[in-house]
């Protein structure tokens, strides 16, 4: 807020007002009685209650001091007493928990508003209000009623009607005896109430209008019709678990402890006016369900009810969410414009991108979300646009969402030991046919960074640990020369049923994968191919150790019964065939970087009962170092001058002072 501006002054005033109200209520509770000063106190008896535009409206009868001292049951309604319309804010109404026949004391500074063409005054500024219990019978009735939640009628008012923006032909001229405003139009589709349990209530097509009319706490009697643009998972803070069957609504029950991974199923929805909202549903015990929900729900119409607002977020607070929204903007079909005629010729797509978004969540124990899986795909749905990696790399955008189909060549967990394993970043090195067939200034493989906030399904993690996989990266983030999988990015083993290729070359790889050879343009945290001549071995840093061939335990002990065998405490068994893990550093001379010192780290595993040495003309470093470890008579001098390559390496660092490149020999998936 601007210092000294109207908004800052209003904010301070509201804070002081809230503090004054809280202090007054605390004082009333502490005194355990009604304030003695009755000057200016307005005493009313509630006759009827309803809610309108998040304000609770109470039709009341004003009472005199003498009548007010009677119990609510004994107070006789006098037709001569004035009728008032008292407005309570949502917070005040929640504090009072008032019902018809309750007596309310309203303390200054309340205000009376006299409206034209009406005889019923309106009472406002009712923050300092107190419900009065004047008898034991009233207290007993209060305790009984306090257990049951009162259902309050809500009058849904269209913003277009409020500002008289609808066409005259479209106006609703239904006026009831109590001047109740007509509800939103009924559901307009071909489905009957058997298919849609929520179809019995009013259906709206505007998220903003629903929020304005129903309020932040939630809506129950009304629902809004939206299109599901994306289905994904987010890490859950407070879990909800539910059972989903076909077209049945989602019903959630809170849980205390959830087994990892604790993730929440989320929907990015869009209404007929183009406004977006993120709906956070129940927690999933398995992340493998995300793909099936995406296939079944994306592009379908969805009916939301029983929602409550978690947050109203803006572009500056949620860059990741709005980068996804921007990838879906502008809409592919014209959208409605608030306040204008809804004829097709009045619709337009020439609208600015959304600047805010409501984060919605479900309320426990109620009907919340219904997806019509049998309905046709909405014209408003935008499937992910698939591009080749070469096209994505040439795009100079910043923080833009992209989708592509790529082969995973190598996986590497970032080694930050201070960070837990489940929070570390993963590097996936991928390629596709557009990169493999590229000729100039395009890398053969690129790194995709998978952050801890990107939820990976168990199916994906198991598949990557087994072998090289062809993955579909949906809504990854591209910017500043990096591709990052963040929140709301989805990785799939199968391509979605609906996606637009946009003319991209999505042919699968047929021949062997090629990597860029090490040269002056090679950067750190990349993979490359290396060929060169062995010029030295760092014997001072060379070491090897045995590990268990079953569990990978590197702390083996001598077997108590047989000191010539090794024993694994984790397996509680003798290790007959341990795996030997070794680490060495070798210096190479590379023609492509003749002025640099090339240091290659070799860290590999060798089965101790199998030794096969390949003595071809250009063996790999792994083979050469295996000779050094196992053949005691093999001299280091005998491997110097040997030509090696092509080696697949991960580049740890590239420095100019000193001019050195540190690599690690790797095995591609």
TrEMBL record:
Species lineage: Eukaryota, Metazoa, Chordata, Craniata, Vertebrata
GO cellular component terms attached to this protein's record: nuclear chromosome; nucleoplasm
Xref: Pfam families: DUF4502 (PF14950), DUF4503 (PF14951)
Domain DUF4502, first and last residues per copy: 1-113
PANTHER family membership: DNA REPAIR-SCAFFOLDING PROTEIN, DNA REPAIR-SCAFFOLDING PROTEIN SPIDR
Protein name: SPIDR protein
Underlying gene: Spidr_1
Domain DUF4503: residue ranges: 270-668
UniProt cross-references to InterPro entries, sorted A to Z: DNA_repair-scaffolding, DUF4502, DUF4503
GO biological-process terms attached to the record: double-strand break repair via homologous recombination; regulation of establishment of protein localization to chromosome
